[in-house]
Amino acid sequence: MVNRSTPSQSSNSSNKEKPDKAQAILAGALQVFTKHGYTAASMDRIASAAGVSKPTLYSYFQDKQGLFVALIHQLTQNNSQLILSLPTEPDLQTPPEQVLRQMATAVLEEFANNPALLTLMRLIIGESERFPELAQTHVREIIKPLMERLSLYLASQPQLKLSDPVVAARIFTGSLVHYLIVQNIMQGHDILPLERDRMVNGLIQLLTAGGAM
Q1: What's the rounded Cα separation, in Å, for the pair 164 and 212?
Q2: Residue 58: which of 43, 38, 37 has the closest Cα?
Q3: How far is residue 112's CA from residue 97's CA, in Å, rounded to a whole number?
Q4: Residue 128 burial class via C-beta count within 10 angstroms: exposed 0-12, middle 13-18, buried 19 and up
Q5: Structure letter (DSSP) for residue 186
Q6: What is the Cα 140 distance to its own chain's centre?
Q7: CA distance 211 to 167
Q8: pTM, two decimal places
Q9: CA distances from 103 to 25, 85, 96 (A)
Q10: In the 8-state DSSP scheme, what is residue 159?
Q11: pLDDT for 34-55, tens place per residue?
Q12: Using CB atoms within 10 A of its CB, is residue 155 exposed (0-12), middle (13-18) or buried (19+)?
């Protein structure tokens, strides 16, 4: 007796296969970008590492830049969800210093526990001159919405007395990025040692001092 799948079974199988293949492609891309860098990471290499054909690869991602940005999205998903879930209306129940400390700690922990993020940050910075559109896409699609949401959150917290929430958001995120670059990417942890908790506490104290911005 021939075993025929019902339409719903066939559809469920197809739907399941799509995310599985997308994840396989992203995993292969991470492997190739990490090993070869952005310039030498060809779509042929990525397809081979992912175990898919080139037509399949292109059916999911139309070019290398789009694949790279999708990989950044995936690796920063947890932190992005944390920031994008910030309220934009006054919230007097949860002190902003608690929210900001949780966010800063989560960002630094994510990078500490996921070396691939540091590798991709190096690639973006290193390739920004030769591939300005890659860096600009990263800023436009990932950094900009997160900065806008953080700025709205800071503006919704009158107790902070921030005259310019946009500048405050830049100081907050810029301090974290600078810390990661100096301590991790530039290997400065022994030259300029600074414990993560001390960094976070000092940053939060600066932003919540009241009227400093």
Answers
A1: 10
A2: 43
A3: 22
A4: middle
A5: S
A6: 13
A7: 13
A8: 0.79
A9: 30, 11, 10
A10: G
A11: 899 899 999 999 999 999 999 9
A12: middle
